[in-house]
Write a structure and sequence with these properties.
Elements: H1 20-28, H2 34-42, H3 49-63, E1 85-87, E2 93-95
Antiparallel strand pairs: 1-2
Helix pairs in contact: 2-3
Amino acid sequence: MATGVKTGGRLVGSKNKRIPLLELINSEYPNYHPVLAMCKIAHSIEASQEQIFQAHKEVARYVCPQLKAIDVNIEPSLTVNNPISIKLPNGQTIFI
């Protein structure tokens, strides 16, 4: 990493790259945002339960991170250091 001198990247003050499709959508439909449109469907009284569910499901993808499955490999242990004890209501104790 350079120290004190800029050696690459964008020039200071350069504008963000515009996406042509978003520009076209905004020219035809000002102030349109697809996630907000799905929110309106999710809270619409005219929408069916299926449409409401699908809208909530799609909006959730943009709001909440999707949890990934993880693979857990645990080798069974044959030795038990501390036995597990269970106290029953009748006062009896069972050790596992």
